[in-house]
Amino acid sequence: MKTLRLLTLTTAALLITACQPKADAAKEADAAAKKPVATLNGKAITQGEFDSFVKQVSGRTSADLDAEQKKRALDSLINLRILAAQAEKDGLHKKAELAAQIELTRLNILQQALAEKYLEGKTPTEQELKAEYDAQIAQMSRNEYRARHILVPTEIAATQIIDRLKKGERFEVLAKDSLDSSRERGGDLGWFSPSSMVKPFADAVMALKKGETIAKPVQTQFGWHVIRLDDVREVQPPPFEEVKQQLNQAVLAKKFRAYSDELTKAAKIEKKI
Prior knowledge:
Elements: H1 2-33, E1 36-40, E2 43-46, H2 47-58, H3 67-89, H4 96-118, H5 126-139, E3 143-152, H6 155-166, H7 171-174, E4 188-192, H8 199-206, E5 218-220, E6 223-234, H9 244-266
Antiparallel strand pairs: 1-2, 3-4, 3-6, 5-6
């Protein structure tokens, strides 16, 4: 029993020792982030704040900057602090609209931090990635379409265009009066997948035969459309390995969404509108 107890204590000691460097590194990083890089009216500007500022405005780390770049970045941050302080002194942060924007920014930052914390160690497995791949492929249209359209503000105008087409006028010519920028190409939208278009438009396109023009105009939030389907081609789904990174992000997003749904279900919510 003494031998067993000794082994247990030894194992525990090893585990504590293994965790110690990580804990020490975290403490050192926290201490470094709190180190002042400047003071403004007696208030410290920390290394952490400076690092965040540099990353936000340049997408780089402060360690990547040379001395002159660091000086300019710090001057910009100090100037930002001065202006923000004056804004608060003028009471601008108390105005309802601005206060709401500040609060939304705070909420978004906290949400992102929570997502990063929750997803730590939840790297998607190969099986999860393949399941997501199969699910996306199943929902994917196997065809791409090439169509032309003429966008007008009213159903009457769209119906009149269809009548003119029936009488032999050219689609490309009538498309010059379209509200859409495709009028410069005779209404040509190029190749597209149905998912890239609003549903009423996509449904109308998929119901047409090659070379056919719709019999009745289609309404979307943009206006009324006259559509002609010019061509259809079959597309092959991208290889699994090629889209692995996107699949990884999709699986992580689903994991966090499920966690978010759990928190929402547990919350007491009373809607006033």
